[in-house]
């Protein structure tokens, strides 16, 4: 499949989660509008070090972006008077980024190969998932003051993928560890890994 690539520093998009983004750079404003019009998926590429960003020609891979990226579809929430956009990207899954394609755009268009994941939770890990859910619930109640927004957030935490993605996004302080969670292909490995982080106090407050 073809995807528009949005490289961002220390940002990971998890499946079944929503990433709000403020878009202001002209090439990415163009990318978002084109993606919405054509229903082209956007891959959010994780950049660890912005100083390593280098020009990429068609036919090359992108050396400064992690190979595994979350992808989803953009929804324009607000178009402001100054031309900037508030956008939600709804995470659909993850893919392996391939070569940059020559499409004559000011932003990068890449090949992407969808990575299948195991999403069935083993019964032996149900207690660990419940522990993550309880901590995430406490975080939501503490950090989201609006009752309506809290309710929407909580109602969307119905599947293990949603709990894991939200937990990693909001409660794991280390961005590399967030990306590591994304790169696991088995929901059971993700739950066990996050539970170990919780026990080792590697979380935000």
UniProtKB/TrEMBL annotation:
Query: What residue range is the signal peptide?
Result: none
Q: What is the lineage of its organism?
A: Bacteria, Pseudomonadati, Bdellovibrionota, Bdellovibrionia, Bdellovibrionales
The record places domain Lon N-terminal at: 3-202
Any one GO molecular function term: serine-type endopeptidase activity
Q: Under what name is this protein listed?
A: ATP-dependent protease La domain protein
| Keywords, ordered alphabetically | Hydrolase, Protease
Q: What class of enzyme is it?
A: hydrolase
Q: What gene codes for this chain?
A: lon
PROSITE patterns with a match to the protein in the record: LON_N (PS51787)
Q: List each coiled-coil range.
A: none
Q: Which GO terms describe its biological process?
A: proteolysis
């Amino acid at each position: 499949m073809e995807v528009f690539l949005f490289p961002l520093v220390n940002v990971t998009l998890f499946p079944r989660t929503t990433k709000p983004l403020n878009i202001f750079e002209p090439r990415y404003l163009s990318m978002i509008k084109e993606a919405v019009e054509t229903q082209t998926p956007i891959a959010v590429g994780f950049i660890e070090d912005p100083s390593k960003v280098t020009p990429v020609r068609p036919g090359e891979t992108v050396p400064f972006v992690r190979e595994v990226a979350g992808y989803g579809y953009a929804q324009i929430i607000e178009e402001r008077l100054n031309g900037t956009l508030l956008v939600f990207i709804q995470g659909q899954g993850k893919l392996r980024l391939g070569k940059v394609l020559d499409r004559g755009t000011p932003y990068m268009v890449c090949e992407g190969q969808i990575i299948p994941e195991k999403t069935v939770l083993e019964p032996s890990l149900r207690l660990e998932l419940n522990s993550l859910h309880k901590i995430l619930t406490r975080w939501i109640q503490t950090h989201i003051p609006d009752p309506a927004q809290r309710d929407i957030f909580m109602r969307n935490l119905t599947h293990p993928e949603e709990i894991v993605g939200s937990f990693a996004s909001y409660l794991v302080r280390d961005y590399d560890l967030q990306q590591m969670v994304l790169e696991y292909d088995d929901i059971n490995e993700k739950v066990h890994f996050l539970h170990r982080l919780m026990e080792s106090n590697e979380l935000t407050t």
